[in-house]
Amino acid sequence: MIAPIVSLTGMASGPGLEGEAAIVITILKPVCITMLIVIFVVMSVTVQISVQPVYFVYNEQASDSVGSKFLGSLLNALIFVFMIVVMTGFFVLLYYYRCLKLIFGWLIFSTGVMFAMFGAVLLDLLLDHWNAPMDWITFSILCWNFTIGGLVCISLLF
Q1: Full domain range(s) for residue 115
Q2: Dihedral sign (CA 60, 125, 157, 106)
Q3: What angle do CA 23, 152, 86 make, to 5 degrees?
Q4: Which of 1, 79, 81, 119 is the most exposed place for a label (fewest CB within 10 A)?
Q5: pTM of the shown model
C-alpha cells in the first residue's frame, strides 16, 4: 500500500480524494488570485488603440470596398503566416544544428522584452488612471525590477 505524502500544509497529497482535492486547491489559488488582478486591471484601465501594426501591408480605410478589405486582410494574414513559418523553420534549423544556447538566449531575451514592455505599458496606464505622478528614474527602476524578477521566477521553473 502506498502511503500518502504529506505536504508542508499538512494535507495529504497521495492517492485518494483528499490528495486530489489538495492538488486542485493548490492549482486554483494562484489562478484565482491572477484572475482577480486581471479583473481589477481591466476594470481600471481603458486602452484606446488608433495605430495600425507595423507589419500590416494593407491599412483599412472606411471608404474601401468590401472586396478590397477582404483582399487586404487576406494579404495581411498571409504575410503573418509566412513570418510564423519562416521563424519556425529558423528555430528548427537552430535546433537541428544543436544551437541550444542561442535558442535559450533568444527565449530569455524575448521573455525579458515582453516583461519590460508589458510591465511598463501597464504601469503607465495605471499611473495615468490613478493620476499618480512618478519620475522616470523610479519608473525605470520599477520596470527593471519587474523584468528581472519575472526572469528569475521563470528561470526557477527550469
Answers
A1: 100-158
A2: positive
A3: 95
A4: 1
A5: 0.67
